[in-house]
Specification:
The chain is α/β, with parallel strands linked by helices. The chain has 37 helices and 26 strands. The strands form seven sheets. The chain has a seven-stranded mixed sheet with strand order 13-14-12-15-18-11-19, with helices on both faces. Strands 3-2-6-7-1-8 form a six-stranded parallel sheet, sandwiched between helices. Strand 23 and strand 24 (993-1000) form a beta hairpin.
């Protein structure tokens, strides 16, 4: 027995992280003494794509290891496994063959999953304890539910007096701020707090507060705001009177700044930034002009203490005012948060839903105090080894939920935990990811009971030498310029990546100069087009598919996509493949809207315009004039006269999916394969699986989702890829172009922070405020929060830049803004400014030069061709209901006499019950489940209990229902010919022998024995030796027959 191991790998971009994960996984399963070693290993990552990649890599590696040719060729992974296991190639080859067969035959136990899927498994296991319905559905689209909850709440306005008053006041406040009076959007934004685990503890306190509590708070705030304003005005007036009383003119002050400041306050201009130089150094700076007469200068100097005191007192008052107004501004949205949450709970109960965003919170409440053996007993698995990938993106609750299992594993012998991450690639803080967890665990600066062995993967296997060298140098430079937090600074100061690739590589940094009023977005897109054209002209083998354009924002991707499309360059991007951009899909939605609501003139006009565009209607203008005034029935008669066999009555009688198919067929919208319509149909089908799916709800749902619904494209298409930096994480491309490199690292969209507030505002202790620089002046807590927030912005946005620049294999192009100040100083708060600052440091920067090169422009490494080329579907796959030739067969059993029907139903029921029984202990649980579900009565439960026990305890069967055998009930097995068999019970022993059991009712028949013989042949083809074939006849008496 050996001690458990706890390793944490710091894996920078391109350092062979997946290779290491696969290698360590294989080492464990190849040396395990378990019958199904992969069943005791849990690997967790964060996306389905990563799960698929890891499973594929492991299976492909085992297939290679199991091939006889592996003994005659060099394979880096195989050689490394043989070396580290100190084994012979022949031994690893033979073990791989056996392991591959076990994994393929028991693929469900191949436990590599997303953390959300594993958490869902835990929730289903503890559903009874959590008082959740066993058949709950997971809602991935939290925004949709929040929108529904807000809409339901707003529909109660006018009925609930207190709620109505609050909402009306909120609308008036927004109008006073020159913003739209429509409050729904603000309430949805606030409601998103309900889905973020980082806000859960704060919301728990607010959930105890009523509308009345918030009303009292708002009244107190309004009163103090008025009092504070009066105090500020009085203080400012006193200073102005003091200046005048001493015979000093306002113009005697430098630029008149000081008296202008106080005059502004008297005029109720309280929006002061306090960033001017004279304000920052008022104690030492000269307050008067150089031309001031000596007696004036003496007078101002004499008054300086009072002037400075007046300035500081009013400044304190202004910040107090900003603090109070900030709280009041957020009072109304937060006050209705509880009401939104109540509506949300109602919707979830009605529709039997759980939001994926609440998984971690729900399970945390249940398992944090549970011993690991109890958790394992519940989930039916015992994991001895854990692999956690992309650990830097793990949230606090996700980590805490795993801790009981990990500590249990590390406390035992032969267990292992392996965490892999890179704090420099932590770009999902907005989703709950906390890089600090990885940093603290990697440095053992945490309360976790076991110390980890920190390991580094120092070599970059992805990028060419110059790309690696540039990124090493550039980000090391940024560590000295950007970071205010020493821990974050050390991430980029640490040892640079080692180069592995023999090729030189190429890096190009270019800057654009923009005239006032220029279309910056278009100019960036034109530069991208220029780079692509230059690249394609450089080599005959250069292809569009080599290139990926990375952008920060969706609108940037749209601008690039539009220009490239205009120049006939094939592109693949979620923005250009939006389903909602399809004319046919727009037409379907408009037709559904008009069919459902004939008074919708806008939808009707969209329908008319499509018909005009696709059909010869004569004069388009006259056709529109004629149709726009027609009633719905007359309008569709006109449409039918054009050859379209469509009836709105028929459409309304069909289900949503069938109605859409009917529209497609009637108007011949897809004569050939149409990816947009096919994907739209999939979207319609998915929606129809939801309860209460009406046409109106579907249209609203589509409008909510249309900006993110895009056609999924296969790999290997020869097209330029355009994607956001977040989506590119984990990917690599021969050529990367990163335009719009001028992001302000401190700029955010409506940020908020929780701030402790004064005891005078009890019972409130914390409140959510709009975050800005004012936080620095909101006491010690505010200053601390401001400092931490700014340092996180620095890390997150430099990480984003790091991810973007480390995707390139051969060539990297960065396009920024050449803008500098009149003094020639760059703005180091932006990506462009940091690039200029770096070039200055290296001595390369020159004001007249806009393009800088590193390395050599050379032929790229050919991209790997896909093993299975894409098959293009030429025909549109959809058959309207009226074209189907389907008849319904009745349940023949119900046409027989009562005795036959009863016997048949009882046999089927026992068959179903036995599919749930693995050991004798399962009988009572299974019967209880069926009784609770209303399938059987109490009397039937007692009768069936005796029958099931007779089977399980039969002398010839007893050994096959023990806890020491591997059992598969009703498991589908695919044959080599592609057909499927489903034995009732397959029992596997550790020596790879097997027993096949089938349950039957009625008289024995030879065909049953032949069926069992066929099952046995197929199971033996899988590598098992069938030692017994047993038929169990369940009639009034039990008969067991060995074949």
């Amino acid at each position: 027995m050996s001690a458990s191991t706890f390793n944490i790998y710091n894996a920078s971009a391109g350092s062979g992280k997946t290779f290491t994960l696969v290698k360590d996984y294989l080492k464990i399963v190849l040396t395990s003494k378990e019958f199904l070693p992969h069943r005791h290993v849990l690997a967790i990552t964060f996306t389905n794509k990563a799960v698929d990649e890891m499973k594929t890599r492991i299976v492909e590696a085992l297939m290679a290891f199991a091939s006889p040719s592996i003994l005659n060729v060099s394979d880096p992974l195989f050689d490394q496994v043989v070396l580290e296991l100190d084994s012979s190639p022949e031994d690893i080859h033979l073990k791989s063959k056996k392991l591959l067969r076990k994994i393929l035959h028991n693929y469900a136990a191949f436990d590599i999953s997303t953390i959300d899927k594993f958490t869902q498994k835990l929730i289903r296991t503890f559903a009874f304890d959590l008082k959740l319905p066993m058949n709950f559905e997971v809602e991935l689209d939290s925004d949709l539910l929040l929108q529904k909850a807000v809409n339901r709440l707003l529909s109660k306005a006018g009925k609930n007096t207190a709620l109505t008053r609050v909402l009306v006041e909120f609308a008036i406040e927004k109008a006073d701020d020159d913003k739209s009076w429509n409050i729904a959007l603000d309430l949805v934004k606030t409601a998103k707090l309900l889905t973020r685990e980082t806000d859960a503890s704060f919301l728990q306190e607010l959930s105890q507060r009523s509308l009345k509590d918030f009303g009292v708070l708002k009244t107190a705030l309004t009163k103090e705001i008025k009092e504070t304003e009066i105090q500020i005005i009085e203080l400012a007036s006193q200073v102005l009177e003091l200046i005048t009383a001493n015979g000093i003119e306002f113009s005697d002050f430098t630029r008149g700044s000081l008296p202008k400041y106080f005059k502004g306050l008297v005029s109720k201009n309280f929006d002061v930034k306090y960033t001017s130089q004279w304000q920052l150094s008022i104690e030492t700076t000269s307050l008067y002009t150089k031309k001031a007469a000596p007696h004036v200068a003496d007078a101002i100097d004499a008054l300086r203490p009072q002037l400075v005191a007046g300035f500081h007192n009013t400044k304190k008052g202004v910040y107090r005012l900003k603090y109070l107004k900030n709280i009041r501004k957020n009072t109304t949205p937060l006050s209705v948060l509880n009401l939104i949450n109540q509506e949300l709970k109602t919707i979830k109960e009605e529709e039997n839903l759980l939001m994926i965003s609440e998984f971690n919170t729900i399970i945390s409440q249940q398992i944090k105090d549970q011993p690991a053996p109890f958790i394992y007993e519940r989930i039916g698995e015992k994991f001895n080894h854990f692999f956690i990938d992309e650990f830097q993106d793990t949230s606090v609750l996700q980590w805490e939920n795993l801790v009981p299992l990990l500590t249990n594993t590390l406390a035992e012998e032969d267990g292992s935990v392996m965490l892999v991450g890179d704090a420099k690639q932590a770009i999902y803080r907005w989703r709950g990811g906390k890089a600090e967890q990885f940093i603290n665990l990697h440095t053992n600066a945490t309360e976790f009971p076991f110390d980890a062995t920190p390991l580094n993967l120092p070599t970059n296997y992805r990028s060419c030498r110059q790309v690696v060298a540039f990124n090493n140098s550039f980000f090391k430079h940024l560590s000295t310029v950007v970071f205010s937090n020493e821990t974050y600074k050390s991430l980029y100061e640490s040892t640079p990546q080692l180069e592995f690739n023999d090729k030189t590589g190429y890096v190009n940094i270019s800057f654009l100069e923009f005239e006032k009023g220029a279309d910056k977005s278009l100019l960036y897109a034109e530069k991208v087009l220029e780079i692509i054209s230059t690249y394609l002209a450089s080599d005959v083998d250069a292809a569009w598919k080599d290139i990926c354009v990375l952008v920060r924002k969706r609108k940037e991707g749209v601008a690039v996509a539009n220009l490239l499309s205009q120049h006939k360059i094939d592109i693949v991007s979620s923005e250009t493949l939006l389903v909602a951009q399809s004319a046919e899909v727009k037409y379907i939605i408009s037709l559904l809207e008009y069919t459902h609501e004939p008074s919708d003139i806008e939808a009707k006009l969209e329908v008319i315009n499509y018909i005009v565009a696709k059909t010869n209607v004569g004069d388009p203008h006259l056709f529109r004039l004629k149709c726009i005034s027609l009633e719905r029935s007359d309008f569709f008669k006109t449409v039918q006269s054009l050859g379209f066999n469509f009836s709105p009555t028929t459409a309304l009688q069909l289900s949503i999916y069938e109605s859409v198919e009917y529209i497609i067929s009637s108007f011949q919208l897809a004569k050939t394969s149409n990816a947009y319509i096919q994907f739209f149909l999939d979207f319609v089908f998915e929606f129809t699986q939801k309860p209460t799916a009406s046409i109106r709800q579907f249209i609203d749902y589509f409008n909510l989702k249309k900006d993110s619904l895009s056609v999924v494209t296969p790999k290997g298409i020869n097209a330029v890829q355009i994607m956001t930096v977040h989506k590119s994480k984990g990917l690599e491309f021969p050529v990367v172009i990163f335009p719009y490199a001028e992001l302000d690292i401190y700029k955010e969209l409506e940020p908020k922070e929780w701030l402790p507030i004064e005891a005078s505002f009890a019972p409130f202790t914390q409140f959510l405020l709009n975050y800005n620089k004012d936080f620095e002046a909101f006491g010690v807590e505010g200053a601390s929060i401001f400092k931490a927030h700014q340092s996180k912005l620095e890390l997150d946005n430099i990480n984003l830049l790091y991810v973007a620049l480390t995707r390139a294999v051969d060539q990297l192009y960065i396009v920024g803004n050449a803008s500098v100040s009149s003094k020639g100083e760059e703005n180091i708060k932006t990506y462009s400014g940091l690039l200029i600052n770096y070039l200055k440091t290296t001595g390369k920067w020159a004001d007249s030069i806009l393009e800088y090169e590193f390395g050599t422009f050379e032929k790229i490494t050919p991209t790997k061709t896909t093993k299975h080329p894409t098959v293009y579907q030429q025909e549109f796959i959809s058959t309207p209901k009226e074209h189907l030739n389907v008849t319904m067969a009745t349940n023949a059993g119900y046409l027989w006499d009562t005795t036959q029907k009863e016997a048949l139903e009882k046999g089927n029921l026992i068959h179903l019950l036995m599919s749930k029984v693995y050991t004798k202990a399962d009988i009572e649980v299974t019967l209880n489940d069926f009784f609770n579900a209303g399938v059987i009565s109490s009397a039937q439960s007692q009768e069936l209990s005796g029958t099931l026990e007779a089977i399980v305890c039969h002398p010839l069967l007893l050994s096959y229902y023990g806890s020491d055998v591997e059992v598969y009930n009703e498991r589908e097995i695919m044959t080599s010919s592609g057909k499927t068999i489903i034995p009732d019970r397959l029992v596997i022993f550790k020596d790879l022998t097997a027993v096949v059991i089938d349950y039957k009712t009625g008289e024995p028949y030879d065909k049953y024995e032949k069926q069992l013989a066929k099952y046995s042949e197929i199971i033996e083809e899988m590598g098992y030796r069938v030692v017994k074939k047993i038929l169990v006849y369940i009639n009034t008496s039990l008969q067991v027959k060995e074949c």
